[in-house]
Design brief:
Strand content: 5-15%
CATH class of the largest domain: Alpha Beta
Number of domains: 3
Helix content: 40-55%
Number of helices: 19
Distance between the termini: 76 Å
């Protein structure tokens, strides 16, 4: 009979969990504090620990730390009543088998415990907690998500961030692929090194190669000075290749060789330089289909997808819309120097009745637009100028005739933001969440003129 130790300062939780687990055939002991639980572990044989995170005195993370130092093979499951992306990532990194939010569903808990009891090795741990600056970066760039698929993604980030393997992030436009890349970078062993973004759709082959590889002075006509490319300046950090499907065949071949040999040739240098950075790539296209059509190299695909994170569209995680709305309101209150503190009746119903073909980016831009228009501290339903359609699970349920193109939506929002910040491109880039080169490229693409 396996023995489970449950640690929680809530007596009712302890009683319910003891009854539930005992019925499943487990021997259950309980502790009302982290300190009591650690003392019990020293004097008894325990097969698994179930610990709350938020407790007076010793927290669940501290309990986990002590257990991993003294009994590294002992499985630990963390419980919490407060969803927190950074906490989820850190708990997984420190060796927790899983992370469960309250209220606890007994069937799910039993399945996780059964799986956890089969684990003999824990994930590699990072002993140092996040610094204040690192946690701030994570919180500012976090995706909000409480639906199961998003919680699994956050757990996977905790695992993959502990090494430098290549990561491929897939998902529709606007689902937050760059935010996921930043979470992977700042959550793990690369967080003290540069995070470099390369927009593969904004540069031609020549400019892209120079951006990645750099060059030495006199390497070719017009090379009047040395330039260090991203492969060099990223050091042991991360290079994020955004929309990798837009690479030409010529650049795909070069990138494959870099990933295969883990070194790159800088024009003008006789010897290749080592590639120390991790490569994270993203795409909104089906790369396997592109391979079948002869438009993407299969060998590069498998070099990139050592680990894959697939982001769901917003229409399949509408339960997150409330939290996302509050998150964006707080962000834009700071950026726009507003004090919107209330959400009017019917706002959430209106937001959830729409299927958001532009995903989180479209929701974010709609909230920004509404906040620019509103004058008081209440965000009302009429502040949102989004088409209404019956709620459904698929894009096909949209009334297409009521919608404009995504390009037109993006163009309109960019124009509104530029007008609001009086064409200050630094502020506009910050509000839109894109780089200045990307903003300039979109201004040129959409032929936006300053009035």
């Amino acid at each position: 009979m396996k023995t489970i130790l449950v640690i929680d300062d809530d007596k009712m939780i302890l009683m319910i969990l003891k009854q539930t687990l005992s019925k499943e055939g487990y021997r259950v002991s309980t502790a009302a504090s982290g300190e009591e639980g650690i003392a019990m572990l020293a004097s008894s044989n325990t097969d698994l620990v179930l610990t709350d995170y938020m407790m007076p005195g010793m927290s669940g993370i501290e309990v986990l730390n002590v257990i991993k130092q003294n009994q590294p093979l002992l499985p630990v499951i963390m419980l919490t009543g407060h969803g927190d992306v950074a906490l989820t990532i850190k708990a997984i990194q420190l060796g927790a088998v899983d992370f469960i939010e309250k209220p606890i569903h007994s069937k799910e808990l039993i399945e996780i415990i059964k799986r956890a009891l089969e684990i003999s090795e824990q994930n590699k741990s990072i002993s140092q907690p996040f610094t204040k600056d690192t946690r701030k970066v994570i919180e500012e760039n976090s995706l909000i998500g409480k639906v199961p698929v998003m919680r699994e993604i956050f757990k996977n980030i905790g695992r993959v961030s502990l090494n430098r393997i290549s990561v491929l992030i897939t998902g529709e436009t606007g689902t937050g692929k760059e935010l996921i890349a930043k979470l992977v970078h700042y959550s793990g062993i690369t967080r003290d090194y540069p995070f470099s973004v390369v927009n593969c759709s904004a540069l031609n082959d020549e400019a892209l190669e120079r951006e990645l590889f750099g060059y030495e002075k006199d390497a070719f006509p017009g090379a009047t000075e040395n330039k260090r490319g991203k492969f060099e300046t990223a050091g042991e950090g991360t290079i994020f290749l955004d929309e990798i499907s837009n690479l030409s065949d010529h650049v795909q071949i070069k990138l494959f060789r870099v990933l295969q040999e883990m070194e790159f040739e800088k024009p003008g240098l006789a010897e290749p330089l080592p590639l120390k950075a991790r490569i994270i790539a993203s795409t909104n296209k089906n790369l396997e289909q592109l391979i079948a059509e002869g438009r993407f190299r299969e060998e590069l695909y498998y070099r990139l997808k050592v680990f894959t994170i697939e982001l769901p569209p917003l229409r399949k995680r509408k339960d997150d819309i409330n939290d996302l709305t509050y998150f964006f309101i707080q962000r834009f209150n700071r950026k726009l120097q507003k004090n919107i503190s209330q959400i009017g009746e019917g706002v959430f119903e209106k937001l959830k009745s729409y299927n958001w073909p532009g995903n989180i980016r479209e929701l974010e831009n709609s909230i920004l637009q509404a906040m620019i228009i509103v004058r008081g501290n209440v965000l009302e339903k009429d502040s949102f100028s989004i088409p209404q359609n019956p709620s459904g699970n698929e894009v096909e349920s949209l009334s297409i005739s009521a919608l404009t193109t995504l390009d037109e939506v993006e163009k309109t929002y960019i124009k509104q933001v530029l007008y609001h910040v009086k064409w200050n491109k630094v502020d506009a880039s910050r509000i839109l969440g894109i780089s200045r080169p990307t903003l300039n490229a979109k201004i040129e693409k959409y032929e936006i003129k300053q009035n």
